Amino acid sequence: MKYSRLEIPELILCEPKINEDNRGFVYESFKKESFNDFLGFDIDFCQDNLSYSKYGVIRGLHTNTLNHAQSKLISVLKGKILDVAVDFRTGSPTYGKSIAIELSCENHKQFFIPRGFLHGFSILSEDAVVLIKIDRYFAEGESIGVKYDDENLDIDWKIPKDLEILSDGDKKLLNFNSFSSPFNYNTKLY
After folding, report:
1. How far is residue 121's CA from residue 179's CA, in Å, rounded to a whole number?
2. Most exposed residue of 6, 8, 19, 82, measured as fewest CB within 10 angstroms of its CB?
C-alpha cells in the first residue's frame, strides 16, 4: 500500500498495489500495522458501514461531537464518488479548507479522514456502494454538520444543481461560519 499525505497533511490518500492477471485482480485493502506505522499512532477500526446511493445523492457534510468523533477510511466497492473532507479545527492553518478526491471501484483509492474534519460525498456514477471503516461506534444524537453548499466552502460536488438529492436533515444544516466547531487545532485526532 502506498500512503500519501495531502495538502492538508492529516488527510491521507491510500493507493493499494493491484495484482492483476487474466482471472481478475486481488489487493490488500487494509493492513493495520503498516497503516499505523505511517500515521505514527494507532487507529483501531471497530466497525464497517456500507452506504448505497444513486446518482446525484450528496451526503454531508457531517461529523460527530467532540467526545464521539470518528476517524474514517473511505473506499468504493461499486461506482464512483467525490469524497470531501473539510478541516473543522479552529486555529488550524487550514481551517475551512477542503480536499476532494475521486474514489471508485476502478481506481481502488482510499481516503483517510481523522477526527476533527467534516466529511461528505457525492455519487458520480449511476449508483455507488461506499465502505466506511470507523474507529468509534455511532452515538445516537451526537451527529453535527454543515451545509454542503455553503458558499464559504466553495465545494464543487460535480452534480448539476437540478439533479442533487439530499436528505431532509442535510437540507437543514447550518452554514459553516454560523456553527461553532467543537474541535480546535490541538484536538487529539485519534
Report:
1. 20
2. 19
Amino acid occupying residue 162: D
Residue reference for cell 461529523: 63
Kindly report, residue by residue over 139-185, the tens digit of the pLDDT. 888 899 999 999 999 999 999 999 999 999 999 999 999 878 889 89
Q: What are φ and ψ of residue 140, in 5° steps?
A: -55, 130
- Answer yes or no: pTM beyond 0.90: yes
* Cα distance between residue 13 and residue 109, in whole Å: 7
Angle at 100 between CA 103 and CA 52, to 5 degrees: 45
Q: Is the pLDDT of residue 189 over 70?
A: no
Give alpha helix (H) positions in 47-147: none
Q: Which domains does the chain have, with CATH numbers?
A: 44-184 (2.60.120.10)
